[in-house]
């Protein structure tokens, strides 16, 4: 369930938004302490923010600026200010959408849904890609990519590199890698790991990457 934070000073609109969102299945939190609105964003960690521009003695634009110092959470401005200059400022400060009052509830919900879907897809895509020292490991395609060139990996080559990426900077013991690659009780010749490391290094060199996998003699490997 996505969490939406409402920052709106008109009580009737605040309640209207809260009912609308809850009835649609969203978790809703709201703030009325506008001087600490940025702190409330940190505390609640919402998935999306509905932010008014004119907030009694405070400005939604200033709050947006404060939020963007630490978060990329989607922000939709909902405001009675309808000039192109205001809209342009909202986007230039990092707003994701700009809706003027009075808004149509169905249109507002559609735009919230669209932004949340786009954000989730973006996060999912980022989770599928790991990058270290300029080398990209694409978890979807079993490929690694460097300088615009790519190489496919076998299942064990991919698992080996993926395991090292997850523990980058650490010296990973050979035994740990062997247990991870061949997750069974059957004895695996230690040489099998060396063969896989050699194959991965060879593919890295074909892309122009050298010394990516460091050997700690008698211990293990590190990237």
UniProtKB/TrEMBL annotation:
Modification 4-aspartylphosphate occurs at: 52
PROSITE patterns: OMPR_PHOB (PS51755), RESPONSE_REGULATORY (PS50110)
DNA-binding region, residue intervals: 126-223
KW Transcription (keyword) present: yes
SUPFAM superfamilies: CheY-like
Boundaries of every OmpR/PhoB-type domain copy: 126-223
Pfam families: Response_reg, Trans_reg_C
A GO cellular-component term linked to this record: protein-DNA complex
UniProt GO BP: regulation of DNA-templated transcription
Domain Response regulatory, first and last residues per copy: 3-116
GO molecular function, one term: transcription cis-regulatory region binding
Annotated CDD domains: trans_reg_C (cd00383)
Keywords per UniProt: DNA-binding, Phosphoprotein, Transcription, Transcription regulation, Two-component regulatory system
Annotated Gene3D superfamilies: 3.40.50.2300, 6.10.250.690, Winged helix-like DNA-binding domain superfamily/Winged helix DNA-binding domain
PANTHER family in the record: REGULATOR OF RPOS (PTHR48111), STAGE 0 SPORULATION PROTEIN A HOMOLOG (PTHR48111:SF43)
Protein name: DNA-binding response regulator
Organism annotation: Paenibacillus lutimineralis
């Amino acid at each position: 369930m996505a969490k939406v934070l409402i920052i709106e000073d008109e009580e009737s609109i605040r309640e209207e938004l809260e009912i609308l969102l809850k009835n649609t299945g969203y978790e809703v939190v709201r703030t009325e302490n506008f001087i600490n609105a940025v702190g409330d964003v940190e505390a609640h960690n919402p998935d999306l923010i509905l932010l008014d521009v004119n907030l009694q003695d405070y400005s939604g634009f200033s709050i947006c600026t404060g939020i963007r110092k630490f978060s990329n959470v989607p922000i939709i401005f909902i405001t009675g200010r309808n000039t192109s200059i205001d809209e342009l400022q909202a986007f230039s400060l990092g707003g994701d959408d700009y809706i003027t009052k009075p808004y149509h509830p169905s249109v507002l919900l559609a735009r919230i849904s669209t932004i949340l879907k786009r954000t989730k897809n973006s996060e999912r895509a980022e989770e599928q890609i790991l990058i270290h020292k300029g080398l990209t490991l694409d978890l979807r395609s079993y490929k690694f990519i460097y300088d615009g060139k790519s190489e496919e990996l076998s299942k064990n080559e991919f698992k080996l590199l993926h395991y090292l990426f997850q523990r980058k900077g650490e010296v990973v013991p050979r035994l740990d890698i062997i247990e991870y690659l061949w997750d069974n009780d059957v004895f695996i010749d230690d040489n099998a790991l060396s063969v896989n490391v050699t194959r991965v290094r060879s593919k890295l060199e074909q892309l122009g990457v050298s010394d990516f996998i460091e050997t700690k003699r008698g211990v293990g490997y590190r990237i």
